[in-house]
Design a protein that fits this description.
83 residues; mainly alpha; 78% helix; 0% strand; elongated
Length: 83
């Protein structure tokens, strides 16, 4: 889908240069690739913030401890079979 954005002239000039050098398929491809990369990073940062909040939540910490305790025996048995 077509979209319009305003970019600094320096950014556009560098974009033109990498396309002319054949380092990217097209301006659209590079812009989309860059946006996908940035969006992925923003999602990662959001997850990190949630984990940091969760690290302060006593109920979540108890749940994690309970799961670790419940699976400790199964994990040990699996480790013995592998090793």
């Amino acid at each position: 889908k077509k979209a319009t954005f305003n970019l600094h002239t320096e950014v556009l000039a560098e974009l033109d240069e990498v396309v002319a050098q054949g380092r990217v398929h097209s301006k659209n491809a590079l812009v989309e690739q860059a946006l996908l990369k940035e969006l992925k990073e923003l999602r990662r940062q959001a997850r990190q913030r949630l984990w940091q909040e969760g690290a302060k939540d006593p109920l979540l910490l108890k749940d994690i401890k309970d799961v670790e305790t419940a699976f400790r025996t199964a994990d040990a048995e699996t480790a013995q079979r592998i090793g």
